[in-house]
Design brief:
With 557 residues, the protein is α/β, with parallel strands linked by helices. It is built from 20 helices and 15 strands. Strand 6 and strand 7 form a beta hairpin. Helix 14 crosses helix 16. Keywords: ATP-binding, Coiled coil, DNA damage, DNA repair, Nucleotide-binding.
Length: 557
């Protein structure tokens, strides 16, 4: 349950620290005092949209935080644990800057606004004064019935099935409609792949062919130059080998050639002669073993020409042909398997449709059963609220088109006068009746809620007199099992509360501030008297307020 709410520089609030208790808490104050500020601050902590207008004039930012006791909230603890956040406490914080930007934290860790909303759904349930307007929408009718039926998981799974089914149906339709185009593409791909199959370009073949072509094209020149080099090494008396041999012989006869610099030079000349003789042998071998092969050269050039021609045809570089070949083959294989894929899609489509219809029928049966119980419970609350002649019903009828939520149209209906058939709320109920019907439905909906904190924001609008006292009793009864917070203008409702918070506005020449305090018994009497009789409190009004408070507390016991 909500145990603390701290507000800093929000709207006309400078600083406000509130503590809340279990049971029913009434929140009252004059019109414009700022009761909506409290709920606005709480809403921001729960992930509602923020804007710069909420920041107090002259302040840089508004800082809001709400602390919850989640010892009994297994779903909230599981949510926190799944995100590796502390589970012994739950502190939601929201900061809104003067430029409209906002940041959020959960237990001190930064989070998204979506996280606040998601966790907030595990903590608190807000029933607003505009709920009766939402009752004119059949989507609200279905949501209320599903809340009472308690099959949210099944409905969510049904929505997933519906999305999968329709996504697959779109895919199947596109595949079917594009079959002719697919066949044409398949024919083109088959021709392209067959052409590349015939080319049969091997790995590294292009580089090898280019190197071979260069060698063969210059082979005659290579032989001529190799022969010249061989002759230069060892041909007649002017060859390098002969000249080196002569130099070595003459140098070796010089006195002292076996030592010093001459000895080193003589060694190098000997080595050079050996190298030249070896080079000559290699050159002679190359010339003698190599033959010109114009036919091979023609084949290599023709092969390279074909590779380049096909590369140009596909608008790729020659070295990219192997990758292109692989991709085109894979695409063709995928298209060749398209017929099987289409049949597989058809089978899967039938399976999903049947799964959806089976699940939707089960949900429909659950809704039919829940509708009877829900109608009876609302009927009981209407009688309690002075509409004992009214007859309330929940009509569950089939839809022509399957929807994510199922096959049902849910309509809340009422007959305000005996003998008249029930009709949809929007067509029958007057404003005052709709307010009471809305309250009865919200009380029943709250009784089905598993949340520990229920907030009622002026749900008693349009109600007065004895009915108002009954409304207070209903809210107090809810407060025996959950924390109930209600913003009200009715003293009959406020008198029933376990705790009473009072909001008032103080204005000076340069500032306006809102203060909130928990009232003791004397304070409650004065506030009830104000709500009963206005600003001037007479002894009679105070006595009436004192009697109302005492009677409410006695009836509660």
């Amino acid at each position: 349950m909500l145990i603390q709410l701290a507000i800093r520089d929000f709207a006309i609030v400078d600083t406000l620290d509130l503590e809340f208790q279990a049971g029913m808490t009434a929140i009252t104050g004059e019109t414009g005092a700022g009761k909506s500020i409290l709920l606005g601050a709480l809403g921001l902590c729960l992930g509602e949209r923020a804007d710069a207008g909420g920041v107090r004039h002259g302040a840089d930012r508004a800082d809001l935080s709400a602390r919850f006791d989640i010892a009994e909230r297994e779903d909230a603890r599981a949510w926190l644990a799944a995100r590796e956040l502390a589970t012994d406490d739950c502190l939601l914080r929201r900061v809104v800057t003067a430029n409209g930007r906002s940041k959020a934290w959960i237990n001190g860790q930064p989070c998204t606004i979506a996280d606040l909303r998601e966790l907030g759904e595990c903590l608190i349930d807000v029933h607003s004064q505009h709920a009766h307007q939402a009752l004119l929408n059949e989507d609200t009718h279905r949501r209320l019935l599903d809340d009472a039926a308690g099959h949210h998981k099944a409905v969510a799974e049904l929505g997933d099935l519906h999305r999968q089914w329709h996504a697959l149906r779109r895919q199947y339709r596109q595949r079917s409609e594009n079959d002719e185009e697919r066949q044409a593409k398949r024919q083109l791909l088959r021709y392209q792949v067959e052409e590349l199959d015939q080319l049969d370009l091997q790995a590294d073949e292009l580089a090898d062919l280019e190197q071979e072509q260069e060698t063969l094209a210059h082979l005659e020149e290579s032989l001529r130059e190799a022969q010249f080099a061989a002759d230069s090494c060892d041909h007649d008396e002017h060859g390098a080998s002969t000249l080196l041999s002569q130099a070595t012989q003459r140098l070796s006869r010089v006195p002292g050639s076996d030592r010093g610099a001459l000895s080193e030079a003589l060694g190098m000349l000997n080595d050079a002669q050996i190298q030249i003789e070896e080079a000559a042998r290699e050159l002679h071998h190359f010339v003698e073993s190599t033959e010109l092969d114009p036919q091979r050269l023609a084949w290599v050039e023709e092969r390279l020409g074909e590779i380049h021609r096909i590369a140009r045809k596909h608008h790729v570089m020659p070295e990219e042909l192997s990758g292109l070949h692989r991709r085109l083959r894979e695409e063709l294989e995928a298209l060749d398997g398209g017929d099987n894929d289409l049949e597989t899609l058809r089978t899967r489509l039938d399976e999903l449709r049947q799964q959806y219809r089976d699940s939707a029928r089960e949900i429909s049966e659950t809704r039919q059963r829940a509708a009877k119980v829900f109608a009876r419970q609302v009927q009981e609350q209407l009688a309690f609220l002075g509409m004992d002649k009214a007859r309330f019903a929940v009509d569950v009828s089939p839809l022509e088109t399957p929807q994510p939520h199922g096959l049902d149209r849910v309509s809340l209906q009422i007959s305000a006068n005996p003998g008249q058939p029930t009709r949809p709320l929007a067509k029958v109920a007057s404003g005052g009746e709709l307010s009471r019907v809305s309250l009865a439905i919200q009380v029943v909906a709250a009784s089905h809620s598993t949340l520990a904190t229920l907030v009622f924001d002026e749900v008693d609008v349009g109600i007065s007199g004895a009915t108002a006292e009954i409304v207070g009793q209903l809210l107090r009864r809810l407060g025996s099992d959950a924390q109930v917070m209600t913003v009200t203008h009715l003293p009959q409702v406020a008198a029933q509360a376990h705790q009473h918070l009072h909001i008032e506005k103080h204005s000076s020449d340069d500032a306006t501030r809102t203060l909130m305090s928990q009232l003791d018994e004397a304070g409650r009497v004065r506030e009830l008297a104000r709500m009963l009789g206005g600003v001037k409190l007479s002894n009679r009004t105070l006595a009436h307020a004192r009697e109302m408070l005492a009677a409410s507390q006695r009836s509660a016991h």
